[in-house]
Amino acid sequence: MRLIRIGAAVLNQTPLAWDDNKAHIVDALEAGRAEGVAVLCFPELCISGYGCEDAFHSPGVLETAWEVLEEIAPATSGMVVSLGLPLQFNNVVFNAAALVVDGRVEGFVAKRFLASEGIHYEPRWFKPWPLGRQSVLRRGGRSYPIGDIYFDCGGIKVGFEICEDAWVADRPGGNMFLKGVDVIMNPSASHFAFGKDEIRQRFVLEGSRAFGVSYLYANLLGNEAGRAIYDGGAMVASLGKMLASGRRFSFQDWQLTSALVDLDLTRMSQARSAGASSQLDEDHSDCIQVPFAWSAAEPVESGGGKAAWERSGRLKEEEFTRAVALGLFDYLRKSRSRGFVVSLSGGADSSAVACLVSLMVQLAVRELGVEAFKARLGNWAELAEAPPARLAAILLTCAYQSTRNSSETTREAARTVAEAVGGRFFELDVDRIVQDYVEMVSDGIGRPLTWETDDVALQNIQARVRAPSVWLLANLQGALLLATSNRSEAAVGYATMDGDTCGGLSPIAGIDKAFLRQWLGWLESEGPQGLGPIPALAAVNSQDPTAELRPRSSEQTDEKDLMPYELLDAIERAAIRDKRTPLEVYKVMRLRFPQYERRQLGRWTERFFRLWCRNQWKRERYAPSFHVDDENLDPKTWCRFPILSGGFERELAQLRRHLEEEAPEQSGEKATAEAGSDAGGRS
């Protein structure tokens, strides 16, 4: 039995925050040494931060990353450590992992498969390292091996799969099996998305089983650069068994997860494998010999596993809560803002945002404690003096801004929610300002504005008038204004630019309305494990979503303006995620929603495509949003579409012909079905 303790550290890093990033790494190294960890894996590009973007092409950034690597190296005394950094070699920049052994940099493995889908644009900054290529990097009078290599550290072989390398069919781990590698380290920067953690677990477990190795997975943690949220979740597996897994969505700067592994067991597993004879290859040119003296590890039981909330039956709701809470916390402290301001309408979207801020406070305080929580946010005077019960009031300001079209129902719902989550609440009547604008423009153009002739314009001015007052509240406090638009609205432009889209951050812009309403129902009745429900949300959940921008006699609702949200979200996925034509989308919807009359379904489909094309400019202007769902519409990180386009005219004509052939129009049907066909085009 040959036991060694191996570990993975997750880090909450910030692009180009060199000293903070270094401190987190050194602190985790010290904790690892105290636990007897001999092999420690850190996340991908942990020295510079993963989200440096075009700064990766700055010579100064590359030089500083090297300097910090050399500063960290002495802290690895007695350990075998992986550290990620951008590395220039032969005038090409690579995403590299440095192996640092006992205080000395011994070589670099360059990433072979670059992440190029969704929010990842690695090929813009890095080049993939070719299979089987090795070379030598010369710097400062020293030579360092670089490339597709592995290391023999005092008789124990260590290899790498860097993040995306493990997600492809032809994983580098297969070749490492042929080389008899004992431990594979996977330094990753894998962003959170619903259901993604299960995929990671599968490739970690399967890699450890199929390659007969012990496998280390280290991920980033928190809101690193503004949009992507990393859930951490370090893993240590061996021979298809999970030995230890770290906490996800932690508010700490770093976390360490370790376990004992028995090298004799993994080596015998390789010996029993059908491919074991392939390990007789005598070409060892890709193996770097590194002297290292291993210490005996004590056979202490390994621990760690799933948190209770991860075993609940409402995993998506729990993940959403904890991901956005962590994203808000990091955005708040890294932007050095002093709280959040929300224009609280009493509807679902703004209520969800207010609740998420409150949940952020509760979850962070539970993990960090009150004083550490305050310290992480900067301990500014008002916060430092606040008792625990007042923290939410200091960090969350809510404003209900009424006009003559606002109802008592939403007014009371807004007040009730603000009180339930502990936020400060202001009521601001902006109706006089709205009427001043209407009268001024009416006088200017020489005619009165009326709902019969100027519907959209009169709706928009109410939403826009609300923006200056909440911006003023935010500026007075040095706080960050949160926009409250959701993904379903973004898809069809059902939002007023410079009105309800105002804000420096849009935390729910990546979430569809159907799920948001489902989440609010869960939050009302059950809530996150350990925190419980917010029953006051009944005042919100009992309403039909409405913008309340038309006179109350019109009984305006979002779904009357647009279409049923469940249908809208289904059309969006079929059209945008699956890239189907309008006719194909209609046929899919006919199967999924047989309760709707076919001609109406066709018109709703056409409405979606027209509004989608017409409103790309709005999506381009949205405030930064959190990426929590790999069906995002953010054009800066996920879903690109031209601002100006042909608008699917040919394809929509095909849909209309199909509808006519499928069901010739009945007398009187068209007028009813087409009512409001251009609704949702607020700008």
Shape: globular
Mean pLDDT: 93
Output the structural class. alpha/beta
What are the segments in which pLDDT stays under 50 over at least 5 consecutive residues? 667-681
Biggest β-sheet description: 8 strands, mixed
User: Taking Cα atoms only, what radius of gyration do you get, to the nearest Å?
Assistant: 28 Å
Strand proportion, as a percent range, falls in 15-25%
How far the N terminus sits from the C terminus, by CA atoms, comes to 70 Å
Assembly level? single chain
- SS field, number of helical segments: 24
Summarize the amount of helix as a percent range: 25-40%
Query: Care to count the β-strands?
Result: 21
Query: What spatial order of strands do you see in the largest sheet?
Result: 6-7-5-4-3-2-1-16
Describe this entry's structure for a reader.
The protein has 683 residues and is of the alpha/beta class. It contains 24 helices and 21 strands. The strands form four sheets. It has an eight-stranded mixed β-sheet. α12 links the parallel β19 and β20. The longest helix has 23 residues. The protein starts with a strand and ends in a 9-residue tail after the last helix.
What would the keywords be for this entry?
21 strands, 683 residues, globular, disordered C terminus
SSE blueprint and pairings:
Layout: E1 3-11, H1 18-35, E2 39-41, H2 59-72, E3 80-89, E4 92-101, E5 104-110, H3 122-125, E6 134-139, E7 142-147, E8 150-153, E9 156-160, H4 172-178, E10 183-187, H5 196-210, E11 214-218, E12 221-223, E13 229-231, E14 235-238, E15 241-245, E16 254-262, H6 263-272, E17 287-290, H7 315-334, E18 340-343, H8 348-368, H9 370-376, H10 381-385, H11 391-395, E19 396-402, H12 408-421, E20 424-429, H13 431-445, H14 455-477, E21 480-482, H15 487-492, H16 513-525, H17 538-541, H18 558-561, H19 565-577, H20 582-592, H21 598-614, H22 616-621, H23 649-662, H24 669-674
Parallel strand pairs: 1-2, 2-3, 5-7, 8-17, 9-10, 10-11, 18-19, 18-21, 19-20
Antiparallel strand pairs: 1-16, 3-4, 4-5, 6-7, 8-9, 11-14, 12-13, 14-15
Helix pairs in contact: 1-2, 7-8, 8-9, 8-12, 13-14, 19-20, 19-21, 20-21, 21-23
